[in-house]
Write a structure and sequence with these properties.
This protein is α/β, with parallel strands linked by helices. The chain has two domains: 121 residues, Rossmann fold; 248 residues, Orthogonal Bundle (Arc Repressor Mutant, subunit A). It has 18 helices and 14 strands. Helix 17 links the parallel strand 11 and strand 12. It is globular and about 65 Å long.
């Protein structure tokens, strides 16, 4: 049974409303099952008709057998089209209609594919569409409803996180993985579900590390180019995050390969067969899961910022570098209630000369560690960066 104490506000809600006000077409993109449909049901006002089409429902698809005839009759409505990536040929028609109608707020499209996979939209709707990304739940959206330990173990997908029963949560994530690999990815050609599952398993074991495409390809029996294509597809469907290395002018030899994260801690735990926090806490992946949790949250809270990491051949390293309004912020993730910086961390901070460094840890309350360095929990991190 899923907890049901009302709708939980989402951080991007105000941005979506601004999009409807200022653009003919607003797109909400994000992984499947992250709450896009629930968000719009609570967000859209009913001062005018709303037409909702789910392109995974055959009856709704049939309404678009003659899409021009159907959509041209919806001028006075807000047309919401869910899973729009299943019918990208709609975008030129939408462009034509919004140009004819004028004004804003005509279409709200939802998709579980990124802008790059929806190439026709960015080409045919240039200047007419704004993209908003919805993530699984961020900590700021659910704190007070769950503990940080539950959030780490279950991840942010609503039907996993908000279950009363941890066993049901784990089973939901296992089903999600199977459904994603064996059904959802069928709309994209050129991959094998079995090979993709093995790749995902390998990524779970090396979560947050740099990957060697040739080594992975050798283990999977495919070329490194194929592995790159698989990673691109996982990234474009919001299942994997690639964090690039900082293009540094420090004069040091830096590692250039990106770090690869599975984008939800609960999915990583399920792939590794870890059903609760107690199992995770004793597993080698524990530290990288905390790093994943911090990264996905700050990317979700600050979508306009650039993120990278820093590592040199001499062992200087920090987990995350955030560029915000000309400021450089270093974020080091420590899965400990008594965090400390390593010599490599201190060396990297000296190389980078950031405006401030945060050591993000599951502490009750943050504190200054030394000049320019603050220990903070997730909520404090958001508050301090915003101010």
């Amino acid at each position: 049974m899923v907890m049901s104490e009302g709708f939980l506000d989402r951080a991007i809600a105000a941005d979506v409303l601004q999009g409807l006000k200022n653009y003919p077409v607003t797109a909400i993109v994000g992984p499947r099952q992250c709450g896009k449909s629930t968000l719009i049901r609570h967000l859209v006002s009913y001062d005018r008709p709303v037409v909702y089409l789910d392109l995974e429902r055959p009856s709704d698809l049939r309404k678009l057998d003659d899409p021009e005839w159907f959509l041209m009759n919806q001028r006075e409505s807000l047309v919401c089209i869910d899973e729009v990536q299943r019918k990208p040929e709609l975008f030129p028609l939408i462009r034509s209609l919004v140009d004819e109608w004028g004004g804003n707020g005509h279409f709200l499209v939802l998709g579980s594919a990124s802008r790059d996979l929806l190439k026709q939209s960015s080409e045919s709707l240039a200047g007419r569409i704004t993209f908003k990304r919805l993530t699984p739940f961020l900590w700021q959206e659910v704190k007070g409803r769950v503990t940080i330990e539950e959030y780490l173990a279950r991840g942010g997908f609503p039907r996993s996180l908000l279950q009363d029963d941890a066993t049901v949560s784990f089973a939901w994530r296992e089903d999600f993985i199977t459904s994603f690999l064996e059904r959802d990815l069928l709309q994209w050609s050129g991959f094998s579900p079995a090979t993709m599952r093995r790749l995902w398993q390998m990524l779970a074991h090396s979560n947050g590390q740099m990957v060697n495409l040739s080594t992975i390809g050798g283990s999977l029996g495919v070329s490194h180019t194929k592995v790159r294509n698989y990673l691109d597809l996982l990234q474009q469907t919001f299942m994997v995050t690639l964090l690039p290395s900082l293009l540094s002018n420090t004069g040091k030899r830096v590692v250039k390969s990106p770090k690869v994260y599975i984008a939800d801690t609960g999915i990583v735990a399920a792939l590794l067969g870890l059903s609760d926090f107690n199992q995770i806490a004793g597993h080698p992946v524990f530290g990288s899961l905390w790093e994943t949790l911090v990264l996905t949250n700050i990317q979700g809270m600050f979508p306009g910022c650039e993120f990278s990491f820093y590592r040199t051949s001499n062992g200087a390293e920090v987990d995350i570098i955030m560029q915000q309004s000309g400021k450089r912020i270093v974020i080091e993730c420590k899965a400990s209630v008594a965090p400390a910086l390593t010599r490599g961390n201190s060396s990297a901070i000296a190389d980078l000369s950031p405006d401030h460094t945060y050591v993000v840890a599951p502490v009750e309350q943050g504190y200054p560690l030394k000049p320019g360095v603050t220990v903070a929990n997730l909520s404090e991190l958001f508050d301090q960066i915003q101010h």
